[in-house]
Amino acid sequence: MDYVSTRNAGLRVSAAKAIATGIAPDGGLFCPTEIPSLTKADLDALLGMDYKARAAFILGKYLTDFTAEELQDFTQKAYADEKFGGPNTAPVVDLKDGKHILELWHGPTCAFKDMALQMLPHLLTASLKKTGETRTACILVATSGDTGKAALEGFADVPGTKIMVYYPVDGVSPMQKLQMTTQKGDNVEVVAIHGNFDDAQSAVKRIFTDKATAEKMDAQGLMFSSANSINWGRLAPQIAYYVSAYCDMVNAGTIQMGDKINICVPTGNFGNILAGYFAKQMGLPVHKFICASNRNNVLTDFFKNQGTYDRNRPFYTTDSPSMDILISSNLERLLFYISGQNDKVVSDLMGQLSRDGRYSLAKELFEKIAEDFDAGYCDDVQTAETIRKLWDEEHYLADTHTAVAVRVYENYRRTTLDKTPTVIASTASPFKFCRAVVEALGGKLERDDVTQLDVLSQMTGMEAPAPLAALAGKQPRFDRVVPKEGILDTIDLLVKL
Ligand SMILES: *Cc1c(COP(=O)(O)O)cnc(C)c1O
């Protein structure tokens, strides 16, 4: 199967090449030229498999230059029981009123990013080999908080790679910051920037597409790659958990094979929900995708305002910081498919976005999107109310991002009367956003964030995940803060590692 750039369909590469490069040289995102199908027989076979086998099966349909043995080996390692607290890598928890919570945060950094970033180092290392690449891959990561730690954890001390993470200095939770700044490994570097996630992501994308920098790196035996969801190797592993959740629901008797589900996702860069869209295009029975946002509701407006995307608006820092994003990169891939893989249309729209900060879709394009997507948002007060209500009424403890999705789903169900069972992606452990969760439950706020974990444990009778509890007393290794214009200069730090 070949991959092309969303901005130049003439640029065809293998899956390995797409993963090794991360982003196309024209700034476009690599996409498969056809979406493989998931037949009824496939789904029946998947019912009897565990998560690792399901993931290898789905990935095999996209990564045709990898062998089944390779992919099985990678998923065994990536989703090892000791990393995900047991064989049930991504469990579904059934709640009231059609809510089926897909918990994606049982991995080592307690957020859903582990589902892809435990796999990516295996995929990337193999891709470098397959493409005959001898240079060291320098992975640049822009993070709104969770990708940074998950990527560091995945790539720390992986031979043939170095990794640099940029995070917004005032835009991540204290726990997220501590997780990143205490990261071990000889090939890692972490830098805070004065700016927000969009600034970091835009700067990183500029570096990727800058010829002069690429040549300088090349002369030193180095190349850039990406661990953000702009990299196909990040997105592909995420398709598997929607299929897996469906199989679990059939096995549990919650639904019958062939029944439709909805999928509701707390969204930032549009990667997670887009992975669900791929699952549907493959043949997974999905009725609607519900795109949930926080107060940075640029996507809600896009879906509600006939496809006008306008990032010219205030940026808010919220209690769900991993969704504080105004430029949702992966929307570009959706536009590519709904336009019939029209690279001209996509480059034109992306040109408008970078020039004017906005674009409007043609009517017939938007109508195609509206068939599949609904959207909504909620603010921090409603998020906190939802955390409290879920705990009081259903004894379910949700983090702030998951709570945004639950709230938006409840609004959707009330206004549409659509009773389709809905998989709600739960993207982080409640302990990762402990302070906001404790506050929502009316508990005592502590000065120290690790002590705060104990408060939540005592209030709920639940144990804090070991990797978070282990942060107690750890000294930060990285304290550099740079202006957002200074990102390019920090590349030297990476080169020297
Ligand atoms: C990254 C993240 C999101 C947003 O996911 P996207 O794929 O960027 O849309 C939501 N919640 C949490 C906890 C995250 O870490």
Overall description:
This protein is of the alpha/beta class and 497 residues long. Helix content is 45%, strand content 16%. The chain has a domain at 91-104 and 252-432: 3-Layer(aba) Sandwich (Rossmann fold), CATH 3.40.50.1100. The strands form four sheets. It has a six-stranded mixed β-sheet with strand order 4-5-15-10-11-14, sandwiched between helices. Helix 19 (434-440) crosses helix 20. The longest helix is centred in the middle third of the chain and has 20 residues, at 232-251. The protein is globular. The mean pLDDT is 96. It binds pyridoxal-5'-phosphate. The site of pyridoxal-5'-phosphate (PLP) has 16 residues, from helix 12.
Give the amount of beta strand, in percent.
15-25%
- Gross geometry: globular
What would the average pLDDT be, to the nearest integer? 96
What's the CATH first level of the domain at 91-104 and 252-432? Alpha Beta
- Tally the beta strands: 16
Brief descriptors of the model:
497 residues, alpha/beta, Rossmann fold, six-stranded mixed sheet, five-stranded parallel sheet, 45% helix, binds pyridoxal-5'-phosphate
Brief rundown of the structure:
The chain has helices at 15-21, 40-47, 51-62, 68-78, 113-117, 120-130, 146-155, 174-181, 197-208, 211-219, 232-251, 271-282, 298-304, 331-338, 343-356, 363-372, 380-394, 400-416, 434-440, 449-460, 466-469, 491-496, and strands spanning 3-5, 8-13, 30-32, 92-94, 99-103, 136-142, 161-168, 188-194, 222-226, 261-266, 286-293, 308-310, 358-360, 373-377, 422-426, 481-483.
Q: Helix and strand layout, with pairings?
A:
Elements: E1 3-5, E2 8-13, H1 15-21, E3 30-32, H2 40-47, H3 51-62, H4 68-78, E4 92-94, E5 99-103, H5 113-117, H6 120-130, E6 136-142, H7 146-155, E7 161-168, H8 174-181, E8 188-194, H9 197-208, H10 211-219, E9 222-226, H11 232-251, E10 261-266, H12 271-282, E11 286-293, H13 298-304, E12 308-310, H14 331-338, H15 343-356, E13 358-360, H16 363-372, E14 373-377, H17 380-394, H18 400-416, E15 422-426, H19 434-440, H20 449-460, H21 466-469, E16 481-483, H22 491-496
Parallel strand pairs: 5-15, 6-7, 6-9, 7-8, 8-16, 10-11, 10-15, 11-14
Antiparallel strand pairs: 1-2, 1-3, 4-5, 12-13
Helix pairs in contact: 1-6, 2-11, 3-4, 3-11, 11-12, 17-18, 17-19, 19-20
This protein binds pyridoxal-5'-phosphate (PLP).
